[in-house]
Amino acid sequence: MSEIVLYADSVEYLYASITAFEVDGTAVDPTAYTAEVAIVEPDVAVEEADWADAVWVKVGTTDRVRVLTGGQALPLTAGHYSVYVRLTGNVETIIRQAGRLTVRDL
CA 31, 97, 43 angle in degrees (round to 5)? Predict the structure, then answer.
């Protein structure tokens, strides 16, 4: 699990890598799923209101989920956070912790 460092006054994209997964033993293209990201303090339960819409982007040869953080988009104050990704398909809703985020003051 990766750790990302951002600054509180920064407005920038946060990327999360999603590895391939299987449904009923068959490899599935994760980009076929709707992606959302939640950023919450460690050991805090994710609430429905915490989920922000994310988009799929290709970085090199890797598909990643991207969400804009900071400013009015997804404001963050200095502290430590857990980053979760939720993928919603026709049958499954998959939630995975994608990493840890540290936000620092300048």
Answer: 150
